[in-house]
């Protein structure tokens, strides 16, 4: 059995693909897995680090308006389709699973050319162009959000890493806080802007640091690998720990009582899977999908929601600090977040992919 996975660009496309790869390997240790990506995406770092084979195809961004660049798309896309089809022929692919991103369009069309069964997974409530195309080429379409508008799609949830879905935050809390140099018995705020960080979140959290410290709240602040703070938090207690990147987000979640974060599909899925309440700050640009990701969690009582333009130190002081100062409210919000989570989408999708590859679905 040989499975080809196509999802690249951002962690939102790559992480579900890798979670599926782990689940497929758990079900069938002898399975062959090849990941498709482009040289411009995070997959060049994330895929090899997880031990999977990565093959690159040319990236073909599609212009969103009528520009001279549009005239170059057909030729470049034909080359990318040929490259993707060639890889699938060489590895003798039994099935292609696409998750979106630049690489997914040529992968879907290459699979169609080779007669390889196509599976589409869309994590977001508003599907991207690649997955809208892919969904027209197959009957095997799965979605992470119940209301995603893809005709005939089956809701299955978002595949997540087992290190996240198996996490017991309560039993791991003391170890996780010690790992980051935090105190074991203080309320803890996790601040993160996702895989690339978020300057607006970084600025607001740092400005709120003195008030958080006075209230006895410690902070674990992940600023993003390409970001620096305009000024460092002054030394003192409780701790305000600043890190550029954390490769053990399971420990970061276990260390925290509450999070301040973006509203990406993977972030929302991971936080609800582990039962960590959060204040969500959706990206201020794009198609509004981050707000749609976070709204059901907030409506269920598992989080707060604030526009990026309204996020200030004062907002954190007036909204996040009271939650962290009220243990009963933290517990109630944690339970509400947990009820919105899904832990088994990786195995459910893996079983369906194997059935499709064998021609029994």
TrEMBL record:
<feature type="domain" description="Glycosyl transferase family 28 C-terminal">
    <location>
        <begin position="188"/>
        <end position="345"/>
    </location>
</feature>
<dbReference type="GO" id="GO:0016740">
    <property type="term" value="F:transferase activity"/>
</dbReference>
<feature type="binding site">
    <location>
        <position position="124"/>
    </location>
    <ligand>
        <name>UDP-N-acetyl-alpha-D-glucosamine</name>
    </ligand>
</feature>
<keyword id="KW-0961">Cell wall biogenesis/degradation</keyword>
<protein>
    <recommendedName>
        <fullName>UDP-N-acetylglucosamine--N-acetylmuramyl-(pentapeptide) pyrophosphoryl-undecaprenol N-acetylglucosamine transferase</fullName>
        <ecNumber>2.4.1.227</ecNumber>
    </recommendedName>
</protein>
<comment type="pathway">
    <text>Cell wall biogenesis; peptidoglycan biosynthesis.</text>
</comment>
<keyword id="KW-0328">Glycosyltransferase</keyword>
<feature type="domain" description="Glycosyltransferase family 28 N-terminal">
    <location>
        <begin position="3"/>
        <end position="143"/>
    </location>
</feature>
<dbReference type="InterPro" id="IPR006009">
    <property type="entry name" value="GlcNAc_MurG"/>
</dbReference>
<keyword id="KW-0132">Cell division</keyword>
<keyword id="KW-0808">Transferase</keyword>
<feature type="binding site">
    <location>
        <position position="195"/>
    </location>
    <ligand>
        <name>UDP-N-acetyl-alpha-D-glucosamine</name>
    </ligand>
</feature>
<keyword id="KW-0472">Membrane</keyword>
<keyword id="KW-0131">Cell cycle</keyword>
<dbReference type="Pfam" id="PF04101">
    <property type="entry name" value="Glyco_tran_28_C"/>
</dbReference>
<keyword id="KW-1003">Cell membrane</keyword>
<keyword id="KW-0133">Cell shape</keyword>
<dbReference type="InterPro" id="IPR004276">
    <property type="entry name" value="GlycoTrans_28_N"/>
</dbReference>
<feature type="binding site">
    <location>
        <position position="161"/>
    </location>
    <ligand>
        <name>UDP-N-acetyl-alpha-D-glucosamine</name>
    </ligand>
</feature>
<dbReference type="Pfam" id="PF03033">
    <property type="entry name" value="Glyco_transf_28"/>
</dbReference>
<comment type="similarity">
    <text>Belongs to the glycosyltransferase 28 family. MurG subfamily.</text>
</comment>
<feature type="binding site">
    <location>
        <position position="290"/>
    </location>
    <ligand>
        <name>UDP-N-acetyl-alpha-D-glucosamine</name>
    </ligand>
</feature>
<feature type="binding site">
    <location>
        <begin position="10"/>
        <end position="12"/>
    </location>
    <ligand>
        <name>UDP-N-acetyl-alpha-D-glucosamine</name>
    </ligand>
</feature>
<dbReference type="InterPro" id="IPR007235">
    <property type="entry name" value="Glyco_trans_28_C"/>
</dbReference>
<keyword id="KW-0573">Peptidoglycan synthesis</keyword>
<comment type="function">
    <text>Cell wall formation. Catalyzes the transfer of a GlcNAc subunit on undecaprenyl-pyrophosphoryl-MurNAc-pentapeptide (lipid intermediate I) to form undecaprenyl-pyrophosphoryl-MurNAc-(pentapeptide)GlcNAc (lipid intermediate II).</text>
</comment>
């Amino acid at each position: 059995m040989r499975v080809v996975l196509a999802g690249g660009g951002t962690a939102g496309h790559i992480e579900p693909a890798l979670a599926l790869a782990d689940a497929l390997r758990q079900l069938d240790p002898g399975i062959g897995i090849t990941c498709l990506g482009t040289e411009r995406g995070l997959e060049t770092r994330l895929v090899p680090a997880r031990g999977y084979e990565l093959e690159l195809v040319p990236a073909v961004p599609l212009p969103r308006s009528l520009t001279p660049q549009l005239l170059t798309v057909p030729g470049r896309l034909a080359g990318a389709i040929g490259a993707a089809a060639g890889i699938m022929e060489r590895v003798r692919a039994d099935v292609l699973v696409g998750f979106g991103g630049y690489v997914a369009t040529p992968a879907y069309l290459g699979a169609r050319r080779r007669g390889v069964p196509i599976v589409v997974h869309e994590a977001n409530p508003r599907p991207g162009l690649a997955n809208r195309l892919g969904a027209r080429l197959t009957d095997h379409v799965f979605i992470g959000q119940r209301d995603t508008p893809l005709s005939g799609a089956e809701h299955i949830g978002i595949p997540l890493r087992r290190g996240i879905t198996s996490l017991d935050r309560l039993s791991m809390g003391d170890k996780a806080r010690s790992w980051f140099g935090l105190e074991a018995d203080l309320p803890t705020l996790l601040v993160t802007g996702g895989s690339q960080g978020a300057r607006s979140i970084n600025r607001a959290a740092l400005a709120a640091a003195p008030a958080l410290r006075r209230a006895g709240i410690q902070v674990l602040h992940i600023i993003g690998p390409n970001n620096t703070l305009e000024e460092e938090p002054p030394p003192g207690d409780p701790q305000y720990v600043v890190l550029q990147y954390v490769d053990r987000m399971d420990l970061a979640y276990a260390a925290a009582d509450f999070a301040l974060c973006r509203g990406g599909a993977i972030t929302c899925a991971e936080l609800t899977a582990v039962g960590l309440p959060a204040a969500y700050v959706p990206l201020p640009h794009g198609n509004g999908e981050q707000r749609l990701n976070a709204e059901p969690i907030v409506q269920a009582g598992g989080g707060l929601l604030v526009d990026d333009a309204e996020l200030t130190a004062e907002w954190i002081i007036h909204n996040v600090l009271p939650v962290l100062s009220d243990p009963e409210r933290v517990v109630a919000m944690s339970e509400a977040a947990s009820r919105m989570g899904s832990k088994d989408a990786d195995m459910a999708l893996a079983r369906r992919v194997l059935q499709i590859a064998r021609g029994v679905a």
